[in-house]
Design brief:
This protein has 306 residues and is mainly alpha-helical. It is built from twelve helices and seven strands. A three-stranded mixed sheet has the order 3-4-5, with helices on one face. It is elongated, with a radius of gyration of 28 Å. The N and C termini lie close together (10 Å).
């Protein structure tokens, strides 16, 4: 949920308008950036935030009179407001940035940019890292660099098998996501397939293992699919080479023997396509299982006004 700040005009996540109270949270008419700027919530009205505060039985800090004449937004240009909104959203959703860059420091850089003290406005044409750098903010996004020798040691240790699903794998994964632990130690490294590595992403290791332990039969099926496809594709490649060799020896393209070989290869290709389709469906179902569990955990931790 997003609210528009009555001071700067930015439409940003509702967490920026929430403060902890003695009993219930408090909602403010302006965002935390403007409060850090030195503005007072009691000097501004905000109808939307006020209504939500009443509905949730939260304290509203601001003018209750919706007819109060509002001053121009601090960020006067609509295009600039969009840029700041996108930049703040990038920070709100990046655990790695939040761990290395305290929110007050991030807010101050945005404030200085809005005031013109920093002669740069975040651009949607640049990456989040590039915008940070141009604002003088430093975040290391390469904390997961593991040298080649350690990667090979991990692959050899686990015999090139994904330790989550059992399929063949070469991706060296951090048990505790590097964005949370900054830990590149050997004990924090494990081997996974590319798919499990992608699905796990920044998910906590304990949660991923817990969700994975709920679907052992699906993981076993994935291994069987992988092995069956490898066998069929190997046989198909062999048949294709035999067809090419026979064509070369005969010196013709159309021939009863060659046509029979083509029919056999077509049947083999159809079997591969059918198996790959089933394999893809099972992988998609498994990914949904992990994503649902991850989303539920994030929802429980979400810092929203409700």
């Amino acid at each position: 949920m997003k609210f528009q700040c009555s001071a700067c005009g930015l439409r940003i996540n509702s967490r920026h308008f929430k403060q902890e109270g003695l009993v219930n949270p408090q909602l403010t008419s302006i965002c935390d950036l403007c409060i850090q700027r030195g503005e007072q919530p009691a000097d501004f009205a905000n109808v939307a935030v006020n209504i939500f505060a009443q509905g949730l039985l939260y304290t509203f800090i601001g003018l209750s009179d919706a007819n109060v004449q509002s001053a121009p937004f601090f960020v006067t240009k609509k295009e600039n407001r969009k840029r700041y909104e996108a930049f703040i959203q990038d920070y709100d959703g990046n655990d790695l940035a939040q761990q290395q860059l305290p929110r007050p420091d991030f807010n101050q850089a945005v404030i200085d940019s809005e005031k013109g003290s920093l002669e740069f406005v975040p651009s949607m044409e640049l990456t989040f890292a590039e915008n940070l750098q141009k604002l003088g903010l430093n975040v290391d996004f390469k904390l997961n660099e593991v040298d080649y020798i350690d990667r090979e040691r991990i692959r050899a240790k686990y015999h090139y098998r994904c330790q989550y699903c059992g399929r063949r794998g070469r991706s060296v994964d951090h048990k505790d996501p590097v964005s949370l632990s900054h830990n590149n130690d050997f004990d924090n490294l494990i081997l996974s397939c590319q798919e499990c590595n992608r699905i796990k992403s920044n998910m906590p290791y304990e949660l991923f293992v817990q969700l994975n332990d709920q679907i052992p039969k699906i993981n076993q099926k994935l291994v069987k699919y992988e092995n069956a496809l490898a066998t069929l594709k190997g046989e198909f490649d062999q048949k294709r080479r035999e067809l090419a060799a026979t064509m070369h020896l005969k010196g013709v393209v159309n021939d009863p023997e060659l046509n029979q070989m083509r029919k056999q290869n077509k049947k083999l290709q159809d079997a591969i396509d059918s198996l790959e389709s089933d394999y893809k469906d099972l992988r998609s179902l498994r990914e949904q299982h992990f994503m649902t569990g991850w989303k539920l955990m994030l929802e429980n931790k979400k810092e929203d006004i409700i």
